[in-house]
C-alpha cells in the first residue's frame, strides 16, 4: 500500500520538477534515512514514469565503520537490481566546501560517463531550514539564504533535482519505520563540533518547544517569498549590467551605475567582476570600490589585484601586474 509520501513525491515529479518518460536518473544516496526513503519511493513509483535509475554512493573514509557502511549499501542496492557506482575517497582532512565540490564533480562525471540526464539528491525541507539558519548566522546576503532549489543545471545536458525538498525529517522518520528500512546510523551527525548538528539538535528543537511554531513551514514560506524579490533584483541587475558595460573593453559607465540604488550598484559591480575577472570580491571590497568611484578625483584607483582607471564616463578594470609579480617573487623566495 502506498503512503501519503508516495503521493507527495508523485505530485513533486509532475508539478514541481516535471520529469519525462525515459529519463535516466542517478540517485545520489547514502545509508541514512533520507536516502533510503528516496530510493524506496523511486522503486515503488518507477513503473508510473518508465524511468531508468542507478545509484551512486561515495565512501568518504571519515568514520571507523566506513567499510561496514559500504558493505551495507552493497546489500541494499543488490536487492533492487539497479546499477551501483561506488567511489572511495582517500582519507584526508577536507573542508565542507571541498567535500561538496568533490561529491558533485563525481556525480557529474558518473552521469556523463553512463548517460544519465538527471541527478537526484535526498535533500529535505529540514535541510533547507538548517541551511537557511546556517547562512543567516554567517551573515550571508538574502540571495544566499536558500541555496537548496528544486532543480538547477549542473552542466550541459545534466540537471540536478531535489524531489524531497518539501519532506520533513519527522515524516521521513515515520516512513522508514513503517516500511522497516535498514537505516545505518551515522554517529558523526551527533557531534556538536559541527555547527549544523548543533542547529539541528538544539536550536531548532528549542524554537519549536518554546515559541510553539512550525519553523520548517515558516522558514519555507519566508524563503519562497524572498525568492520572488531576489529574482526581480537579479533581472534588474542583468538588465543594467548590459546597459552600462563597454562593448569591447573590460569597462562600464560608472556614472550611470552610481545613479542606481546602492543595492543595485553592489549587485551590478559584483556581476561585472565575476564575468570579467577571476577575482573573488566580498561585500566589503565591493563597498570600498564604490566608495572610491564616488570620491576619487585621480585617474588611477588601485585596489588589491586591480587598477581602476577612470576615463570620462568609463571605469576601466586593468589587472594589477605589479602586485601579481610581487606575489610571485615572494613565493619564489619562500620556495
TrEMBL record:
Gene3D superfamilies: HUPs. CDD domains: TilS_N. It is an enzyme of class 6 (ligase). Keywords: ATP-binding, Chloroplast, Ligase, Nucleotide-binding, Plastid, tRNA processing. Its main location: plastid. The keyword Disulfide bond does not apply. Residues 25-202 form the tRNA(Ile)-lysidine/2-thiocytidine synthase N-terminal domain. It catalyses: cytidine(34) in tRNA(Ile2) + L-lysine + ATP = lysidine(34) in tRNA(Ile2) + AMP + diphosphate + H(+). Pfam families: ATP_bind_3. Transmembrane segments: none annotated. The keyword Cell division does not apply. Signal peptide: none annotated. GO terms for biological process: tRNA modification. Its EC number is 6.3.4.19. It is found in: Plastid, Chloroplast. One of its GO terms (molecular function) is tRNA(Ile)-lysidine synthase activity. One of its GO terms (cellular component) is chloroplast. Ligates lysine onto the cytidine present at position 34 of the AUA codon-specific tRNA(Ile) that contains the anticodon CAU, in an ATP-dependent manner. Cytidine is converted to lysidine, thus changing the amino acid specificity of the tRNA from methionine to isoleucine. HAMAP family: tRNA_Ile_lys_synt. Belongs to the tRNA(Ile)-lysidine synthase family. This is tRNA(Ile)-lysidine synthase, chloroplastic. It comes from Liagora harveyana. The lineage of its organism: Eukaryota, Rhodophyta, Florideophyceae, Nemaliophycidae, Nemaliales. The gene is tilS.
Amino acid at each position: 500500500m502506498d503512503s501519503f509520501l508516495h503521493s507527495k513525491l508523485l505530485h513533486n515529479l509532475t508539478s514541481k520538477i516535471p520529469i519525462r518518460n525515459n529519463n535516466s536518473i542517478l540517485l545520489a544516496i547514502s545509508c541514512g534515512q533520507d536516502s533510503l526513503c528516496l530510493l524506496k519511493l523511486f522503486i515503488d513509483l518507477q513503473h508510473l514514469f518508465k524511468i531508468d535509475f542507478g545509484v551512486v554512493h561515495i565512501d568518504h573514509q571519515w568514520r571507523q565503520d566506513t567499510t561496514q557502511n559500504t558493505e551495507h549499501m552493497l546489500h541494499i542496492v543488490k536487492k533492487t537490481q539497479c546499477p551501483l557506482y561506488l567511489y572511495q575517497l582517500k582519507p584526508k582532512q577536507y573542508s565542507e566546501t571541498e567535500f561538496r565540490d568533490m561529491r558533485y564533480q563525481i556525480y557529474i562525471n558518473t552521469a556523463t560517463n553512463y548517460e544519465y540526464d538527471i541527478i537526484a539528491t535526498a535533500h529535505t525541507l529540514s535541510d533547507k531550514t538548517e541551511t537557511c539558519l546556517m547562512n543567516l548566522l554567517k551573515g550571508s546576503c538574502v540571495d544566499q539564504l536558500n541555496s537548496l532549489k528544486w532543480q538547477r543545471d549542473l552542466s550541459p545536458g545534466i540537471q540536478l533535482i531535489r524531489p524531497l525538498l518539501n519532506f520533513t525529517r519527522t515524516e521521513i522518520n515515520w516512513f522508514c519505520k513503517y516500511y522497516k528500512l535498514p537505516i545505518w546510523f551515522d554517529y558523526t551527525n551527533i557531534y556538536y563540533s559541527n555547527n549544523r548538528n548543533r542547529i539541528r539538535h538544539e536550536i531548532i528543537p528549542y524554537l519549536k518547544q518554546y515559541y510553539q511554531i512550525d519553523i520548517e513551514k515558516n522558514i519555507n514560506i519566508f524563503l519562497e517569498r524572498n525568492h520572488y524579490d531576489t529574482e526581480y533584483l537579479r533581472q534588474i541587475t542583468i538588465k543594467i549590467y548590459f546597459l552600462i558595460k563597454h562593448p569591447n573593453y573590460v569597462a562600464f559607465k560608472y556614472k550611470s551605475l552610481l545613479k542606481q540604488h546602492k543595492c543595485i550598484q553592489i549587485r551590478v559591480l559584483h556581476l561585472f567582476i565575476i564575468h570579467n575577472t577571476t577575482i573573488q570580491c566580498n561585500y566589503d571590497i565591493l563597498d570600498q570600490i564604490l566608495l572610491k568611484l564616488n570620491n576619487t578625483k585621480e585617474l588611477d584607483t588601485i585596489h588589491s589585484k586591480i587598477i581602476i582607471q577612470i576615463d570620462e564616463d568609463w571605469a576601466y578594470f586593468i589587472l594589477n601586474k605589479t602586485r601579481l609579480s610581487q606575489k610571485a617573487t615572494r613565493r619564489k623566495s619562500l620556495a
